[in-house]
Design the sequence.
């Protein structure tokens, strides 16, 4: 090993970390060379300066470990939540598991599965229709959707030709400003109400001449 | 078994416990290394808050990676290696309080200043200022050698570079610090030479 190599090893001779063989070689060189000893003294001075912590140097906070523990716990908590979320079965899996456990679904033949699913779908669709609110609030009457305040008018029972369309029947009622109170009953008779001020006799006469009116009878007050 | 080997075996055992989620073992490792890490980082970046942040980043990585620690290097080398990597990451957006290798001031520029120093204490103060002006590559080799007491193969391991690079960096660091070292009041005669 030449002199330059020994020089390179001097810092680690100074800090005491050289292996035995290298240390012995450097020591032999130091014995022979005053210049080498001066270099060693310089490294020792450098080591002394570097290893000293001065008062001006910052000191680490004492409670820093608590911050670390808090950080670890937060990350563990987040990881646990994430893992729980990933392991939780989806809605589809939950339904499938329920089917498997309840009906031994995985052992059911394919055609039976199709039949059960179809029936289930029909039941669900009907349920939905029943549950869904009607587009029109209240009920529909043949005299129309307009809300009419019912007064204490004269009531008539009227039967009409079964071939009469709803529109024709509504037109007939509107002619006399009448509205349906109830019906049709089992034999197709409607109870209608005329306004209080109507001329009942005249209305009855007109209705009787109408070929589509098959039955007409005033209801006793 | 010597003290160093006992210490190493103890730390390896702690790391294995940490790998199994033992926070008490982490506390022991923290007690032994946090100040060393802090000292290493603060001398590189001169930012107290950042240095504390890096200490906890390093120990967090130790906590997470302990289970995969295979003991191919000594625990201290492993931990300081993480510290150095984290320090470099931390300063990526912040300019280091050092100069680049090529921009390091020439020693001669401060020869006069060094020659005016009367005592070792004054000289040490000037030497510290000169150390601050070293490039980060030179300074970390000096710090790891003289503050942390690592051997050159260990430093090569921490810095992930060849051993010869470590020696060369130390050689250049000494060259930069020569005016202060030469004026420490020693002569060849003091060092045991023939006058």
Sequence:
């Amino acid at each position: 090993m030449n002199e330059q190599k020994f020089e390179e090893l001097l810092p680690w001779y100074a800090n005491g970390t050289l292996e035995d063989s290298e240390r012995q070689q450097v020591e032999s060189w130091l014995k022979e060379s005053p210049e080498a000893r001066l270099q060693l003294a310089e490294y020792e001075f450098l080591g002394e300066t570097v290893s000293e912590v001065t008062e001006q140097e910052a000191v680490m906070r004492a409670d820093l470990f608590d911050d670390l523990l808090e950080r670890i716990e937060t990350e563990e908590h987040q990881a646990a939540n994430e893992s729980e979320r990933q392991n939780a079965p989806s809605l589809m899996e939950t339904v499938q598991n329920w089917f498997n456990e309840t009906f031994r679904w995985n052992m059911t033949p394919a055609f039976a599965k199709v039949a059960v699913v179809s029936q289930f779908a029909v039941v669900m669709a009907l349920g939905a229709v029943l549950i869904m609110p009607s587009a029109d609030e209240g009920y529909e009457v043949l005299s129309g959707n307009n809300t009419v305040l019912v007064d204490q008018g004269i009531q008539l029972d009227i039967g009409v030709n079964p071939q009469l369309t709803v529109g024709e029947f509504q037109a007939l009622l509107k002619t006399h400003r009448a509205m349906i109170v109830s019906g049709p009953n089992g034999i197709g008779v409607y109870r209608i109400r005329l306004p209080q001020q109507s001329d009942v006799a005249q209305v009855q006469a007109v209705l009787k001449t109408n070929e589509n009116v098959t039955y007409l009878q005033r209801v006793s007050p | 078994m010597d003290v160093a080997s006992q210490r190493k075996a103890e730390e390896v055992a702690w790391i294995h416990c940490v790998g199994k989620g033992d926070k008490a073992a982490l506390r022991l490792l923290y007690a032994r290394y946090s100040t060393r890490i802090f000292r290493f980082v603060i001398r590189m970046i001169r930012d107290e808050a950042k240095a504390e942040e890096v200490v906890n980043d390093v120990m967090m990585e130790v906590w997470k990676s302990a289970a995969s620690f295979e003991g191919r290097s000594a625990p201290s080398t492993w931990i300081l290696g993480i510290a150095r990597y984290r320090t470099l990451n931390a300063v990526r957006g912040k300019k280091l309080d050092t100069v680049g290798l090529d921009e390091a001031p020439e020693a001669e520029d401060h020869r006069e200043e060094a020659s005016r120093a009367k005592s070792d204490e004054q000289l040490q103060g000037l030497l510290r200022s000169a150390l601050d002006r070293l490039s980060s590559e030179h300074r970390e080799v000096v710090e790891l050698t003289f503050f942390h007491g690592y051997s050159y193969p260990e430093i090569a391991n921490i810095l992930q570079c060849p051993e010869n690079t470590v020696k060369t960096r130390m050689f250049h660091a000494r060259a930069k610090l020569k005016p202060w070292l030469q004026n420490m009041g020693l002569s060849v005669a003091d060092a045991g030479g023939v006058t």
In short: The interface with chain B takes residues 7-9, 11-12, 14-18, 34-35, 37-38, 40-43, 45-54, 57-58, 60-61, 64-65, 67-69, 71-72 of chain A (CB under 8 Å).
